[in-house]
Automatic annotation (TrEMBL):
InterPro entries: PA_dom_sf, PA_domain, Peptidase_A22B_SPP, Preselin/SPP. Residues 57-140 form the PA domain. Gene3D superfamilies: 3.50.30.30. This is PA domain-containing protein.
Amino acid sequence: MDRAVKIVLFSVIFLASQINCQEAILRISNENTERDYCIVHNHSWTPLSETLDAALQYPLVNLTSTVLCNTSGVNPDLVNGKAVVVMRGDCDFSQKARVAQSLNATALLIASNKALTTPTANDSEYAKVHIPLALMRYRDFLEAQQVFGDGMQAKLYAPPNSKIDASIAVMLLIAIVTIALGGYWSGTCERDRLNGVSGGGGESKADSGELFLYSPLKVVFFVALMCGMLVLMYFFYNVLVYVIIVIFCLASASALFSCFDAVLDLVGCGTGSFSIRNHNFSVRSIILAAVCITIAVVWGVYRNEDRWIWILQDLLGVAFCLNFMKTISLSNFKICVILLSLLLLYDVFFVFITPFFTKNGVSIMVQVALGPDASGEKTQGNMVEVPAEPQAPSEKLPVVMRVPRFSAWAQNLCMMQFSILGYGDIIVPGLLVAYCSRFDVWINSRRKVYFVSCCIAYFLGMILTFAVMLLSGMGQPALLYLVPFTLITCAVVAACRGEMRQFWAGTTYEVLDSSREPLLPEGRTDYSVKGEKC
């Protein structure tokens, strides 16, 4: 019984998530080949079939020499029982449709040199039209003529678009894997550092370049700097975007090198060193550097190619997040609470509050993340607008993971649709996950209680974020859900284990501005934390 209820509930949710979009697909074919093209229609006219198999096939006739505002100059025998393509202009859509009906046409396609907008009419006009009507790009029709010539066959269909898309699962997987790997890497580096210190080895490779945030004042300054940078990006986007792109290429190439180098160390790959004029060089490092720089350069050159470049951007983004979590260390839970709470307020303010102050009503966060002109496809309510001609690519900041929406076939034909997740939604909770991993090392926890608990809390927070996004139909500031989930979970675990004092105070050594050497507390002879062992 319970299983049946669950199946029924899931079915209701899935069907409710199916939405009818104004974008549809035109399948043009002949005996040898077939191609799909973007069209825009209106459900208030005659609705289109939802599947290709159910769609009717019509012979396609080229009447682009006329706008079909009347029947003059049109041979009825040429149009009878066929789908016709006419040019946009001179009269409204309903008049063209009525003229096409009077000529016994079976479908009307309106070729446009302007942006494709949802074809509308007065409510009384919709009932007078009984044939499918849609707009298509004129350049698409010219291409189809070159490919197919005469004898074109056409099918029009509008597959429903599900809000629940596989891209969400892929995005969730990327976030969880990045968080888990980053936390594990940070903990491993901490264990190597402690072993190096206790063994008298000095600074280890894992310890090089590590930066600790231990002062609340520095945390406040860091968040204030982020606010200032975001505001500068909003007002000077067209200039600063290129600065950020260059910095991202350099930083991500370096991060990717660190990740690959760590993996090769893990599998025991040799370095293959050689010397030139008393300078030692590593063959492995040279090859890795060449590969990482090449990947960053390829992304930089082809960054606006939406069809495939998202793969490289996500690869570089994952490497950037992993290296950030490994390099930046929060020294105690107090710093974690201050930093994550301030960044939560920062996220909420710039997403929900700033739209009241901007001219276009768009939040500063969204404007900066997506770019001022990043609206190749614009939607307002039930209206849609698709460019008729290729647009000059608008530069976007490389600050998000991007995964194309796999189920949005019609929308992707018109303009690629992406699910996105900001790097900050991974890095910010990731710093807490990394702290938990290091704390597990300090207390010699074999089960990694804090690390595992924080990862589970992050996963649940992401699930809630996506659920709210799907139900509300609006993008959500993920930190609004991730910060409470992770902080509260960590605090509850520490309290239940009786280790809150140690967890709040954090590391057993102090970090000075001028030195990374640990200072043992008075009377301490080891690196363990006073308290219960796991």
